[in-house]
Amino acid sequence: MIVPETWFFRYPESFLSLGMLARERIASLAGARPLRILSLPCSTGEEPYSIAMALFDAGVDARQFKVDAIDISPVSIAKAEHGVYGKNSFRGSDISYRERYFHPVADGFEIADSVRACVSFQPGNLLDPKLASHVAYDIVFCRNLVIYFDRQTQQHVFKVLKQLTREDGLLFIGPAEGNLLAAIGMRSTGIAQSFAFRHAPVDAAVPAPAPKQVAAPVAPRPVVEAPARAVAPRPAPRTSAAFAPIAKPVAAQANSEVSAVLDKIAGLANEGKTAEARAACERYLQQHEPVAQVFYWLGLLSEVEGRVPQAQGFYRKALYLQPQHSESLAQLAALLAAQGDTAGARRLQDRAARGANKQGNH
Length: 362
What we know:
Blueprint: H1 12-29, E1 35-39, H2 46-57, E2 65-71, H3 74-82, E3 84-85, H4 97-101, E4 102-105, E5 108-111, H5 113-116, E6 119-123, E7 137-141, H6 151-164, E8 165-172, E9 186-188, E10 196-199, H7 250-270, H8 274-287, H9 292-304, H10 308-321, H11 326-338, H12 342-360
Helix pairs in contact: 1-2, 7-8, 7-9, 8-9, 9-10, 10-11, 11-12
């Protein structure tokens, strides 16, 4: 399975969490060895380079970590090693890292040598039995791959990922991929929107029941403008009761409530509580105006339950409400590519690229 749709700092909260958790882990190593990090599939290099940049931004020295990046596609590996990227790889409202870690060249932006030196690329297949025999890593990134496999393959892949993650390590996954991890003895770190998991203590590793199949939601409706970064929107800042404003305008209060509900949905999905997250989405659609982000989550949740046609329908509804919802574009493009509809996938990828270019020009 080749998943070429990627960009720098996809799910930015994961990288913020990475910086904090990596510093803690490095302190516990006390200089005994560098932090070992794995990115797979690494595609064209945006994820492993983002890992290195996030660690630099967190104050980690280049000598304190090493990133191994693995992908099944030699073409993707070659592009990653080349390290030159177009505007489509730079999405979201904050691309200030491009000034720090790239320099312009004729056909795009080239990654800095300081970042390149921290990442080692190699071909490999997650389903290759030899991979499971690798020395375990402190941190593993494997995001938005497992949802495209059938349930049996998902279980096998997660067991391999668990083997590749040290007992005291961290596994970062995609937003809707957590439901199988509890069953194999992994639990969420509890950091909102980080999608990071640890090995559960032995007495806590109780298999989770299979997610309940919930009826498809009633005719949906759209998302309050989702942020450009395309994960669940950042929750509205919380203030203690002592400092809460005495009165809020009705519109501001409504927006705050919507943000809180969307944040709750993201949290449930992050913890692998698929049925509860789906039910929260359905309640949202019954009580609020429809928003793209809710349909995006319903699409992800449907994918993880193996309901691919339903997932496609939800992504299309998200895009009807918000035509440049980048995560929905990426997920739907990947689904179409997996089904052999390369033309349809390419159209969506081009559409995402046009949106990213437009954003970059503002």
